[in-house]
């Protein structure tokens, strides 16, 4: 059975080449992740038809956009996609509503699946419709740009580092809206980023690119937990856990989260959430400590029984990286080589993973 999205590209430049073969899910957010120069944006531009791969095959669900073996190349304006760039590039002579209407006019009325009022509400810009672009903040402009792309009723939404030009305050302003698009729309997204925190917060599937090659492709949970990838070596290395809220402690403002497929729970410092709501958490490897005992008095609220799966030397000679299994949920831990030797840690060993409730990113 073929995957909903297939991308096979061979692109040769004088000093750089791309050679990728990807089968991707047809729903949710797929992140193309890697350092600058890894080929992320070039891949996105080839999918959009803004660059033509010398040899390529691109299929979105049942629609082929390029098949070089048959000499077929669908023009960019005929591809049912929305493209969000780093800069919103709004038309300065048009109001917010005028910019949105421009996107809406790109598609026949009979093919429109998203209406202007719906896109404006989804992106929280319905109160800005009369404003000119020069009266918007950077975050507001980018939200207008995303809404304009949605109004083309795309079969695929491409986002090329949409938060890269924004400061941390504006990024945090936009991220909840991107999460809402993920939760409420059935449009698959390809999201280019070099920020692991953005990827951890938004992505369902992760493609890791390096020097024009896809060195890994898989679900966000399994890919971030792999010790054989460069992702594990960074200071922000960690895993993403998709849990479900089981309780809320109003006195201490702590959310209890059930780990998937397990009776284990974590407590997370968070505003009130309804029981049964899905909650995505990131646990950084540097925030996981290990103990031989599970019942010592401590300020650390989360103590999970784990089994050591494997270990590798870290990029720092004083550290060791461990992959742990908490009843089916993968965790990473970065500890000192001294602690590793002192606790005589080895694969198969049973330990307790300790995680501060305030350290979990939810």
Task: Please describe the topology of this protein.
Blueprint: E1 5-12, E2 17-24, E3 29-33, H1 40-48, E4 55-60, E5 63-67, E6 72-73, E7 81-84, H2 96-104, H3 116-122, H4 138-150, E8 156-160, H5 168-184, E9 189-193, H6 196-202, E10 205-210, E11 213-219, H7 220-224, E12 238-249, E13 254-258, E14 265-269, E15 278-284, E16 288-291, E17 302-313, E18 319-326, E19 329-336, H8 337-342, E20 350-355
Parallel strand pairs: 3-9, 3-10, 7-8, 8-9
Antiparallel strand pairs: 1-2, 1-4, 4-5, 5-6, 10-11, 12-13, 12-15, 13-14, 16-20, 17-18, 17-20, 18-19
H/E order of the elements?
Answer: EEEHEEEEHHHEHEHEEHEEEEEEEEHE
Counting DSSP H or I runs of 4 or more residues, the number of helices is 8
Radius of gyration: 22 Å
Distance between the first and last residues' Cα: 35 Å
Strand order of the largest sheet: 7-8-9-3-10-11
The beta-strand count equals 20
In short:
The chain is α+β, with helices and mostly antiparallel strands. It has helices spanning 40-48, 96-104, 116-122, 138-150, 168-184, 196-202, 220-224, 337-342, and strands spanning 5-12, 17-24, 29-33, 55-60, 63-67, 72-73, 81-84, 156-160, 189-193, 205-210, 213-219, 238-249, 254-258, 265-269, 278-284, 288-291, 302-313, 319-326, 329-336, 350-355. A hairpin with a 4-residue loop joins strand 12 and strand 13.
């Amino acid at each position: 059975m073929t995957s909903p999205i297939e991308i096979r590209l061979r692109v040769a430049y004088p000093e750089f080449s791309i050679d990728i073969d990807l089968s991707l899910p047809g729903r949710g957010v797929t992140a193309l992740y890697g350092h600058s120069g890894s080929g992320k944006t070039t891949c996105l531009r080839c999918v959009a038809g803004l660059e033509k791969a010398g040899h390529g095959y691109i299929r979105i669900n049942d629609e082929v956009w390029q098949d070089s073996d048959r000499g077929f190349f669908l023009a960019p304006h005929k591809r049912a996609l929305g493209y969000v760039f780093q800069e919103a590039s709004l038309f300065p002579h048009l109001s917010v509503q005028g910019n949105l209407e421009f996107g809406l006019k790109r598609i026949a009325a009979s093919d429109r699946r998203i209406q202007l009022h719906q896109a404006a509400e989804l992106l929280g810009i319905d109160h800005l419709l009369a404003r000119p672009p020069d009266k918007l903040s950077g975050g507001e402009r980018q939200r207008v740009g995303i809404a304009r792309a949605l109004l083309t009723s795309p079969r695929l939404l491409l986002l090329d580092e949409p938060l890269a030009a924004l400061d941390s305050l504006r990024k945090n302003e936009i991220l909840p809206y991107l999460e809402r698009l993920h939760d409420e729309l059935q449009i698959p997204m390809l999201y280019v980023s070099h920020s692991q925190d953005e990827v951890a917060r938004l992505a369902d599937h992760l493609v890791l690119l390096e020097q024009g090659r896809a060195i890994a492709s898989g679900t966000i949970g399994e890919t971030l937990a792999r010790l054989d990838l460069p992702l594990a070596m960074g200071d922000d290395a960690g895993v993403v856990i998709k849990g479900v809220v089981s309780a809320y402690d109003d006195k201490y403002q702590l959310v209890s989260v059930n780990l998937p497929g397990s009776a284990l729970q974590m407590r997370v410092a968070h505003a009130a959430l309804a029981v049964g709501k899905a909650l995505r958490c990131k646990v950084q490897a540097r925030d996981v400590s290990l103990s031989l005992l599970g019942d010592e008095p401590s300020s650390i609220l989360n103590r999970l029984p784990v089994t050591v799966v494997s270990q590798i030397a870290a990029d720092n000679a004083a550290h060791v990286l461990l992959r742990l299994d908490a009843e089916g949920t993968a965790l990473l831990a970065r500890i000192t080589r001294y602690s590793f030797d002192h606790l005589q840690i080895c694969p198969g060993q049973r330990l307790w993973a300790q995680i501060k409730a305030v350290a979990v990113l939810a």
